[in-house]
Amino acid sequence: MSTDSELPGTYYPGLEGVISNETAITNLEGRKGDGDLEYRGYRIEDLAEHVSYEEAAYLLLHGELPNAGQLAEFDSRLRSQRQIPGELIDLLRHIPREAHSMDVLRTSLSVISHFDPEVNAISTDHAANVRKAERIVAKTATAVAARERLLAGQEPLAPDASLSHAGNFLYMATGKKPSASMTRAFDLSLVLYAEHELNASTFAARVTVSTLSDIYSGIVAAVGTLKGPLHGGANEEAWKVLVEVGSPDNAEHWIQDALATKKRIMGFGHRVYKTGDPRARILKVWCRKLADEIGEDKWEKIAEPIEREVTAQKKLPPNVDWPTARLYHYMGLETDVYTPIFALARVAGWSAHIIEQLDSNRLMRPRARYTGPANRPVKPIQERR
Ligand code: ACO
Known about the structure:
By secondary structure, this protein is mainly alpha-helical. The chain has helices spanning about 45-50, 55-60, 70-80, 85-95, 100-115, 125-150, 165-175, 180-195, 200-210, 215-225, 235-245, 250-260, 280-295, 300-315, 320-330, 340-360; strands at about 25, 40, 40-45. It has two domains: about 25-225 and about 345-360, Citrate Synthase, domain 1 (Orthogonal Bundle), CATH 1.10.580; about 235-330, CATH 1.10.230.10. It contains 16 helices and three strands. The longest helix is centred in the middle third of the chain and has 26 residues, at about 125-150.
C-alpha cells in the first residue's frame, strides 16, 4: 500500500488549505485577514454600496470597473441577449415538475450552448469566451424565470429591456414589476453571490476546462456542484430551518435542542470564514428593511435567536445563505428558485475563472492515496467466490 512518503504530495482531506492555482479575480485574505473579501482588489463592502450587478459582472469578466460608456454598452449587450431559444422553452414545458430546479438549470444551460453562435470556437479563444460569458449571464436569468413561471402554471414572460438585470429577473419570475427597494436588495444579493474564489463549484468549473473543454461544460459542471446542500443548496435548506421552527416562541427551544443533538444548521459555518461572512453582515440589514416594508417580522424574530446561539455556542457565524433565504421570501420568490438565483449571479464568477484558467492552463490532475488491497492475483472465474 502506498504511503504519503511515496506520493508526490501530502493528503489534505477535503483539499482544505491546498493552493491549487493562482488567481487575480478574488482575494479572500484581503487586508484584514479572515472575514475579508475583495473582487479584483475592491472590498466587497465598497462594491455592495456603489456598484450594480452589471458593473460587478463587467469587473469580473473584463478585469476593471466600467466607465459610463463601457457600462452602457455592456448593459445594452446583456439586455439584447436575454432571450432564450424557443426550443428550450418547449423542452421546459415537458420536464416533470418534480425535477429539481438546479437539475433543470443544468439542462437549460446545456441546451443554450447548442444555440450559441460561437459554440465551436476554440476553447482558449479569450475574446470568444468573454462574448459567450456575457450571453450566459444574460440568458441564465431568463431560463431560471421561465421554469418558475411554468411551475406556477403560467406562461414564461418575455424579458423587459427597460428593466435592469435584477429588476427584469424579479419581473420575469413573479410577473410583477418590483419596488425600487426590492430591486436594490435583489441586485445587492446578486453582487454578493457573483464570485467567491475557489469554492467547490468554481473549482469544478476550472477542473473541467483544464482539459481544454469549453466554457459551457465548465458552467454545467459548476451548476451540478452548486446544487448540493453543503454549498449553494444551503439557502433553500436555511429557509426550511425557519419554517421548521415555525414561530418566534419556538425558536429558543428549537435551537437549544438542535445544538444539544449536534444537528447541522444550514446557513451557518464556512470553510474559509471562521469569524464571519461579510456578505451575511451586509444582507442582514436588508432583511430587516424588507421585513418592515412588507410588514412581516416573524422570520426576523425567528432568525435572531438562532443566529445568536449558533454564533455564541458553536462559534459558527451565519454565511451568505442564511440571510438570502429570508430576503428572497420577502420578495415573494418560491424556495425552489433560491439556489438557481445563486447560480444566475455566480455565472459571472464561474465564467471569469474559466477564462482565467483557459488563458493560462495546466491540466488539473491530482493524486489519490490508495487504501485498497494490494498484490492480488486474478483467479480463473470458476475459482472466484
Ligand atoms: N451546524 C452545526 N455544526 C457545524 C456546522 C453547522 N452549520 N458547520 C460545521 N459544523 C461542525 C461540524 O459538525 C464539525 O463538528 P465536529 O468537529 O464536532 O464533527 C465541525 O463544525 C467542522 O465541520 P466540517 O463540515 O468539517 O467543516 P467544513 O469546513 O468542511 O464545513 C461547511 C464548511 C460545509 C460550510 C459547514 O460549515 C456546513 O455544513 N454548513 C452548513 C451548510 C451551509 O450553510 N453551506 C453553505 C456554505 S457557504 C456557500 O456555499 C455559499
